[in-house]
């Protein structure tokens, strides 16, 4: 698979792969191992550009008969406030198109926060309760924002934070504008799992691809554990694996 580094850095297992394809495949293999070990797994899933290839790999493994999602349950990290599940840019649509419709997961076992919830605090509480009632998340997949955010926990998010409504930063709105026709169409708020919600997952796999993520990864692995870099809180968890391509890891382990 072309590993360059497979080591533990400040309590986090770091796997550096030769390119983005290998990093995505390594991430897919970790998820596939989880499903083989426990077919009833509760998976925490992520959106954004980063996991696209990983989802393609999982679909291939499923088509080859190597994994099944038939007994699995999923909870997504976040959703834009104000977008219905049918909106093409909603994270519900993203998940339906990129993964759920292409594997054997039961639609009723897939959970994404409802961007149109009329009572957002009640919806967030119910989302947390639903995760707990399914026994908690076995494996949480994460990406990372350029500013060190995980899910939509922007800098300043508390380590105790739970699923809640949040404002997006200008930086995140600008970065995510590529998925919309214009920056004005990017919602300004989201519902996101909190840092504490994420840290309750039994295992966490964070995938980062490309040189744009290097600074965030450096702060996460080597900087202070601080709410200014939400991903740095992952160092408080014993079961985190970070998978990087060579570009994201460039200069970090020289
Ligand atoms: O994978 P991308 O598109 O670089 O996004 C990185 C992170 O930003 C988010 O899309 C939120 O902005 C996360 O869900 C994701 O992990």
Automatic annotation (TrEMBL):
It catalyses: alpha-D-glucosamine 6-phosphate + H2O = beta-D-fructose 6-phosphate + NH4(+). InterPro entries: Glc/Gal-6P_isomerase, Glucosamine6P_isomerase, Glucosamine6P_isomerase_CS, NagB/RpiA_transferase-like. SUPFAM superfamilies: NagB/RpiA/CoA transferase-like. Pathway: Amino-sugar metabolism; N-acetylneuraminate degradation; D-fructose 6-phosphate from N-acetylneuraminate: step 5/5. Keywords: Carbohydrate metabolism, Hydrolase. Belongs to the glucosamine/galactosamine-6-phosphate isomerase family. NagB subfamily. HAMAP family: GlcN6P_deamin. Catalyzes the reversible isomerization-deamination of glucosamine 6-phosphate (GlcN6P) to form fructose 6-phosphate (Fru6P) and ammonium ion. This is Glucosamine-6-phosphate deaminase.
């Amino acid at each position: 698979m072309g590993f360059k580094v497979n080591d533990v850095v400040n309590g986090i297992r770091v796997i550096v792969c030769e390119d983005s394809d290998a990093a995505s495949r390594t991430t897919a293999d970790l998820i596939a191992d989880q499903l083989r070990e426990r077919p009833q797994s509760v998976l925490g899933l992520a959106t954004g550009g980063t996991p696209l290839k990983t989802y393609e790999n999982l679909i291939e493994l499923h088509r080859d008969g190597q994994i099944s999602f038939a007994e699995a349950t999923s909870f997504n990290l976040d959703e834009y406030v104000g977008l219905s599940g049918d909106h093409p840019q909603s994270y519900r649509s993203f998940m339906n198109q990129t993964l759920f419709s292409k594997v054997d997961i039961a639609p009723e076992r897939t959970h994404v926060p409802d961007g149109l919830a009329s009572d957002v605090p009640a919806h967030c509480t119910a989302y947390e309760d639903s995760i707990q009632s399914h026994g908690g998340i076995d494996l949480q997949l994460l990406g990372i924002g350029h500013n060190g955010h995980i899910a939509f926990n922007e800098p300043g998010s508390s380590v105790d934070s739970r699923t809640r409504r949040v404002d997006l930063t200008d930086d995140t709105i600008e970065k995510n504008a590529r998925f919309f026709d214009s920056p004005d169409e990017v919602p300004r708020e989201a519902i996101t799992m909190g840092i504490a919600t994420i840290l309750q997952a039994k295992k966490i796999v964070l995938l980062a691809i490309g040189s744009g993520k290097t600074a965030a990864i450096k702060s996460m692995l080597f900087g202070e554990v601080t709410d200014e870099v939400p991903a740095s809180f992952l160092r408080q968890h014993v079961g985190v694996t970070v998978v990087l391509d060579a570009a994201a890891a460039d200069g970090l382990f020289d």
